[in-house]
Amino acid sequence: MRKFFLFFLALILSCAFVSNAQQYDIQLDNVIYVDGIASVQLISGDDQLSEPVAVLGDKFHISFDDLNLEIRHLKYTFIHCTHDWQPSQLNPIEYIDGFMEEDITQYDHSFNTIEPYMHYQADFPNENISITKSGNYVLFVYDDSPDNPILTRRFMVLEPVPAKISCDVHAAVDVNNRFSHQDVDFTVFTGGYNIRNPQQTVRATIQQNGRWDNAKFGLVYRSGVGQELHFDYIDGRNSFPGSSEFRTFDISTLRSNADRVVGISFVNHHTHVYVLQDDARPYVAYESRGHIHGRCYYRNRDLNNDYSEDYVFTHFTLKSSFPFTDGDVYVFGELTDWQLLDDAKLHYNKEFDFWETELLLKQGVYNYQYVYVPRGTNDLIDATYVEGSHYQTNNIYYIYVYYQEEGSSYDRLIGFQPCSILDK
Questions:
Q1: How far apart, in whole angstroms, are the C-alpha atoms of residue 145 and residue 207?
Q2: pTM value?
Q3: Per residue in 339-398, pLDDT tens?
Q4: Average pLDDT over residues 87-116
Q5: Over the stretch 255-301, which tens digit does the pLDDT of each residue have?
Q6: Stretch 311-319: mean pLDDT, rounded?
Q7: What structural domains does the chain harbor?
């Protein structure tokens, strides 16, 4: 009787969610919808630097901070998507087991910080809510009602026995881009998947670092032999500008200047950190350096307590020998959610002849770069205009392979593989 009641309740909730989904002002992307929400991370397992990709049934962890300290009744649910991040045809009851929404009940106050915040976190799947199908998903977090969105975050659920993928990142085949671009070739070994019409049923996506704006969607295999599908092209559809290695700075300690930090001050009850001035480098020779592929790693080296990382106003300055009269320059990376944030846009300081901005960031180690957006291009992000571009750059690429079985109505994620030019 209880199982029947839960099933009936889940059916009602799922139908209500589907019927009203178009009314909610949300995007199926990584977006924060209210001011004061910061440092959002959705990972698989416990590794801060892991991608939000896990085998069906394995754990995901979502965490974020609320600097407004508002009293919230946070809930979350999942939205199943197609291989190119459109709403799928599935009803929530077809891919969610248990309740259609779950409360976020774990929250803690920051410890010994100048900037107070509330830290929220949750693990899923759990005993109340779980996922039954592989594919692309959006985690939707809201305050009491879906009419009050807080954030959305993409994650991917992989089939229990994924197909194997071999990949090769190399200098572009196109002679015009030989020294500036990278091609990503790969082969999918379908294994136990009985794929009869791969030209129509198999699609692949290539993602560079954590960016979705320049991802290659809907790739179809070029040739195949038996259970091998080859995705290698000569027309540039698998080609990316290499850009340059990410810049870095370390604010995991505020007791002294760490890597590329030149000053720390306390002004008007706020901590300010000054990152070493950067230079535009479009024509500089390639320089190798270790990095975390544009990511950030939250940490306070001076305190071992949980939630002791403080927030500091972090100042960036960029010196350029050429003007940015036809576009705008932004600080970019996971520190901006891989988005073009208004706060991250640089402004010209005429007195000192450099470009500057500041961001309120949580203590940790950061990678970042400067991207250029020409006016009138609908936010087309160019990571080469300021940074230059090299085929040797150690970008990390994520390959996703989807299979919509004949007679099925959704894209299964049957393969996932990270790779870089160093994987030789």
A1: 32
A2: 0.93
A3: 999 999 999 999 999 999 999 999 999 999 999 999 988 789 999 999 999 999 999 999
A4: 96
A5: 999 999 999 999 999 999 999 999 999 999 999 887 899 999 999 99
A6: 98
A7: 2-11+19-158 (2.60.40.10), 164-242+394-420 (2.60.40), 247-374 (2.60.40)
Mean pLDDT for the stretch of residues 45-68: 96
| Cα end-to-end span (Å), the chain | 58
Residue 407 has a pLDDT of: 83
If you count them, how many residues does the chain have? 424
Tell me the pLDDT tens digit for each residue of 214-247.
999 999 999 888 789 999 999 999 999 999 999 9
Match 């809930």 to its residue by tokens. 75
Residue 21: predicted pLDDT: 47
In contact, 366 and 296? CB cutoff 8 Å: yes
